[in-house]
Specification:
This protein has helices at residues 10-16, 19-26, and strands at residues 45-49, 55-58, 62-63, 71-72, 81-86, 93-98, 104-109, 119-122, 127-131. The model has no long low-confidence stretch (mean pLDDT 95). By secondary structure, the chain is mainly beta. The structure holds fe (iii) ion (FE).
Length: 133
Amino acid sequence: MSKDKVTKTEEEWKRELTADQFRILRLKGTELPFHNAYYDNKRKGRYYCAGCGKELFSSETKFDSGTGWPSFSGPISEDAVELHDDKTFRMVRTEVACARCGSHLGHVFDDGPGPTGKRYCMNSGSLRFEEAK
Ligand code: FE
């Protein structure tokens, strides 16, 4: 395991995160569409993991997917996130997790715009936005 990794017990996560963040990041929960902080955020800046602060996404790849969740055509770097097969709820999806702390961020789908064709569908609750200065 790389020394960059953040590992905590679920008790520690529970203490440090809000109830909503814990439910999304650690229990792989999903927040409501159109009722979350960043789906309509058009400001320029960067999005960091709400669990560990790792830089994950840039406003430059953010697009309006119409889903009500913040959507990106790709992460800020290939090694920022990890992808896992997710076969819950009778679907086969690809889960997106933070590469540093393993927290759940959302899912990635193959119906995005642009050359990558990817749509990273994220939970606002798993992210923290910082506006560019
Ligand atoms: Fe993280």
